[in-house]
Amino acid sequence: MSRTVIIGGGIAGLATAYALHERGCEFVLIESAPRWGGKIVTAQEQGFTVEGGPDSFITQKAGGLELCRKLGLEDQLVGSNSGEAAKTYIYSSGQLQAMPEGMMLMAPTMILPFLRSRLISWPGKLRMGLEIFIPRKHGNEDESLAGFVRRRLGNELLNKIAGPLMGGIHAADPERLSLRSTFPMFIEMERKHRSLTLGMMKRAKPVAGQIPGAKRPSMFMTLRGGLQQLSDALVARLPPESLRANCGVSAVRREGELYRVELSDGTSLLADDVVIATPSYVAAGLLRPIDAGLADQLSAIRYVSTATVSLGYKRSDVAHPLIGAGFIVPHSEGRKITACSWSSAKFNHRAPEDSVLLRVFLGGAQSEALAEQHEDELVRIAREELCIILGITATPVLVKAYRWHKANPQYDCGHEQRLIAIEQTLTRLPGLHVVGAAYRGAGIPDCIQSGTKAAQAIAARHSSDESCQSESIAMYIKS
Fold first, then answer.
1. How far apart are CA 10 and CA 40, in angstroms?
2. How far apart are CA 412 and CA 434, in angstroms?
3. Model-level pTM?
4. Rg of the chain's alpha carbons, rounded to an integer?
5. Is 108 within 8 Å of 100 (Cβ atoms)?
6. Which residue ranges make up each domain of the chain?
7. CA angle 327, 333, 338 (to 5 degrees)
């Protein structure tokens, strides 16, 4: 009987285990921490629903929605609020300026709202307007987000909108962030339409056959009780005897066609397949006894630290209307926070009726040291910044801080070539797979999809194994 050992109990490891279990395959899921879910953690306190890590998943990628439906969580799905409640602000020159209506990430799809906006200066608007005359870029070399935006739309848009917004999604430095590995649609848009602005305008037009005025599905979804409902539901579906939390792994070694997984308690497991669903630098340490070159390739993927501070207030203590999803802070503004999500306005069921919930983000590639401080200092900084930006002086009724040390993989320029090298090495090591946020997408749907693809890959490998009905599971990073 074939058996798979999955190392890492975050969403990628859990999705891998669930896909294995669906196919009747034997597995052991190992997690070094006492809890499952990794960065997915939800706290329910005093009527507040606080997310420590991600607070939602994108619906344009099907993995998150599909898994929620399989798990019977469809009635718990909650979309982000739309209209005015979805408006995003930019902190610029000491004020919150609304993102111009019709902005799609970094290019306007509507001219008049953009022209009326005070966020971008007239010279900056003129530079953006010249984008329709800029020729396509030739060549296939990887380009940073900053290089692309600067070349097509100018420095002001890069510094005020594209950098903090798009770089912020990955907690990244725009000067190092690979456009091909994070926002490839813009490369294709330039190739197809020459002008990014014209391409975005065409993309924004209603699809033929779409009913006028019909409500589009929300781009972001969460669960009524928080995203931990997802990881908890996965754990509940898995056989308890296959789950080993509070269990460390010290190394993975090859024994003929099998793999021996050495545990921190001195015991070991023998497996046909091994799925490593940890940060890539952890995977590198585990796999060095098997292939030092592979370990070096995995170690080359950088990680940065971030932190979140959630603050609950009585509504009467906050003068700002908080109509919108929140604000982002350009690095050039010199503030200590990178963004603030107005959680109770962004999603329903996040705070009691008489209260509001705000979530402050710190750290990332451009200010990583701030995220490494003690929780008390993080809270102090968050409150001080909210006092300056939103005028909030009241004492919060709820405070929750989470630090995520080296938890955010960086898709630097050259990331695609690094993945190709990793994949080529893995082809020489049948039964060994790496999965998770470090490879082909850091979002929840990406991690779920990686587990599903791993199931398919191992199914093919064990197609004649009756005990697994052609399937076992491990992680597969090819998209």
1. 8
2. 19
3. 0.90
4. 23
5. yes
6. 3-38+231-301+413-468, 103-134+142-204, 303-409
7. 45
